[in-house]
Design goal:
Blueprint (H helix, E strand, L loop, with lengths): L13 H26 L5 H34 L5
Length: 83
């Protein structure tokens, strides 16, 4: 158990949990901005945004799972390891 009293997932799940959280947060923000720009602030915004968010997340999460190892390698090419 952790200090907060909640059980934590084993470290091996970090490779899935990190892109899951990242994809949820990023698609929430980006789909919200895109939907707001397309529709303006009005009654349709709250009806359309969750649909846009869901579709965006369905693409973003598996995409992150596939490309994140490549991105990590690319970052390692340009960033020095910790001393």
């Amino acid at each position: 158990m952790s200090r907060s009293g909640y059980r934590k997932l084993p470290a091996r799940y970090g490779a899935v949990v990190m892109p899951l959280i990242l994809s949820v947060l990023m698609t929430f923000v980006v789909s919200g901005i895109a939907t707001l720009k397309a529709l303006g602030f009005g009654p349709d915004l709250l009806r359309v945004w969750p649909i846009s968010w869901g579709l965006s997340w369905l693409v973003a999460f598996p995409t992150l799972l596939v490309i994140l190892p490549l991105v990590r390698r690319m970052v390692a090419l340009v960033v020095a390891p910790p001393a």
